[in-house]
Amino acid sequence: MTLDTVLLAVGPRDADRSEQLAETVLEVASPADATVVLAHVFTDDEYDDVLDRLEFDERLEEADPDNVAARHSTIQDLQSVLEEHDVDYEIRGAVGEHGPSIVELATSAGADRVVVGGRRRSPTGKAVFGSTAQEVLLSAPCPVTFVRHDD
Questions:
Q1: What is the pLDDT of residues 68-117, one digit of tens each?
Q2: Where does the UspA domain start and stop, copy by copy (predicted)?
């Protein structure tokens, strides 16, 4: 299987692991000369908070999810790493529940691989709170690489 497109999905809690995510996506995408889709998924509340924090004027068209994602610091950090390694990329944003939105982005981007981060959680924690990474692992249209970050 050739890799043409790798989706790297991040959310609001991934800033502390952006270096690990960048290393992993480079390991996957660089040898295959794949394009990386940097995707940031926001819940409705997270999106509203980011719009306020980044001082977007919601009346302007610039406040679409792709542009909001492009201005987010985690995406900018990852973008710098990809540029440094001459990896082609595009930036996508989405608003909705994290797991289903990542799966939808992977499908719409035609991703051949998805890279997501997550934390080690107890079985009870997963059952009570759910797991975005678990949902992506089970529902993605392609293989998923999970980058674990221990809290």
A1: 999 889 999 999 999 999 999 999 999 999 999 999 999 999 999 999 98
A2: 4-148
User: What is the total count of domains within the chain?
Assistant: 1
| Strands of the 5-10 sheet, one edge to the other | 89-95, 35-42, 5-10, 113-119, 144-149
Q: Which two tokens stand for residue 127?
A: 């059952």
Helices and strands of the chain, counted as H and E runs:
7, 5
Angstrom distances, CA of residue 64 to CA of 24, 28, 51, 60, 67: 28, 29, 10, 9, 6
Q: Which domain holds residue 114?
A: 5-147
129 or 87: whose pLDDT is higher? 87
| CATH code assigned at 94 | 3.40.50.620
Chain centroid to Cα 115, Å, comes to 8
What pLDDT shows up at residue 90? 97
What is the rounded CA–CA span in Å between residue 13 and residue 125?
Answer: 17
